[in-house]
Amino acid sequence: MTTPLETTEPAAAQAAAGAGDERPAWRGTLRYALAKAGGALFSIAMVIVGTFFLFRLLPGDPVRNMAQGRNMTPAQLDLERHRLGLDKSLIQQFFDFVGDTLRLDLGMSYEYKRPVLDLIGERLGPTLLLAGTGLVIAVSLGIWQGTRAGWRHGSRFDRFSTATSLLLWSVPTFWLGLLLMMVFGVGVGPIPGIFPFRGIESVDAPDGFAYVLDVASHMVLPCLTLVAVVYAQYLLVMRSSLVEEISQDYVTVARAKGLRDDEVRRRHAVPNALLPTVTLVFMRIGFVVGGAVTVETIYTWPGLGQLFYEAVSVPDFTLMQGTFMLITVAVIVMNTLADVAYHILDPRVRSA
């Protein structure tokens, strides 16, 4: 016979074991997040170091470039270098740069004679508007087409959508942008252009809701270029994930229970297939801050991409450093959040 003590002890031990199993899972997620955060901080530190030396390797003297057409004497050039701190040794410039960066002081732009943070703040809004809108459209279109193509893989729709997306993905961005500008902006032959293709607004931009329509019309061509180039990533990832999920046992069981095909896809297969796409979306969000340098340059969109292009053209060291660091730090942060989110959403990653 077993005594009450003998019967209660295993139960208590099992309860303690269950509580112990729960605790390591929570601690494991926290430990994973802290490890990823530490890696992100190390990457950001490497970005700060690399940014300084990377742009010093570019050819050209910023002082001489700024002095073009101004007939400055050598003494005046030396005075300008002293004002900008370019007469100091490279090591001293580096320590000054690191100290200012830690204080969130990105310096003064050589070309604009204004704080870099102010210039970035002015250009951030147009970039978020254009790149953010393009991201939402590309993700929605890619997931919708990828779901249909993956669920009916091998069908005409699958072959057509996959071939079209791969074709657009392989086309150089600048070539596609110039083609769309020529056809729908400038016009072909007697056919006039439909959409404006310069800047974010018209010279005589109206007020109120008409202004919103004016900005929207200027967004059509650059946004279309962005979407056409990147939506294939979401389509292909979603398609391959869904094709893999279709062969899983739980999909077969759901069909055996008598669920309709649409319910099996919507309630079972698609949520699991979305996990890799979530990671890709997080990674692309980081690039939203930087926008698309090529697209913004082609359409002279006044965003961070255009600002970075202008800084490289001078060259404006402080402006290049500030915009480049903002873009890379945003990508690092979003990649870290993607890793942590994937660890939380997918139990297979936690148990690995």
Total domain units: 1
Mean pLDDT: 81
What's the CATH superfamily, by name?
MetI-like
- Structural class by SSE content: mainly alpha
Oligomer: single chain
Task: Write down the CATH topology.
Answer: MetI-like fold
Tally of alpha and pi helices: 14
Q: Describe the main β-sheet briefly.
A: 2 strands, antiparallel
Uncertain runs with pLDDT below 50, 5 residues or more?
1-22
Radius of gyration: 27 Å
Give the CATH architecture. Answer: Orthogonal Bundle
Tell me what you see in this structure:
The chain is mainly alpha-helical. It has one domain: MetI-like (MetI-like fold, Orthogonal Bundle), CATH 1.10.3720. Strand 1 and strand 2 form a beta hairpin. Helix 5 runs antiparallel to helix 6, helix 5 packs across helix 8 and helix 8 packs across helix 10. 28% of the residues are buried. InterPro entries: BPD_transp_1_N (IPR045621), MetI-like (IPR000515), MetI-like_sf (IPR035906).
Please specify the SSE layout and strand pairing.
Layout: H1 4-56, H2 62-66, H3 74-84, H4 90-102, H5 116-151, H6 156-170, H7 173-186, E1 187-188, E2 191-192, H8 209-246, H9 249-256, H10 261-290, H11 293-298, H12 304-313, H13 317-345, H14 347-351
Antiparallel strand pairs: 1-2
What are the key terms here?
352 residues, 78% helix, 2 strands, two-stranded antiparallel ribbon, mainly alpha, disordered N terminus, MetI-like fold, single chain
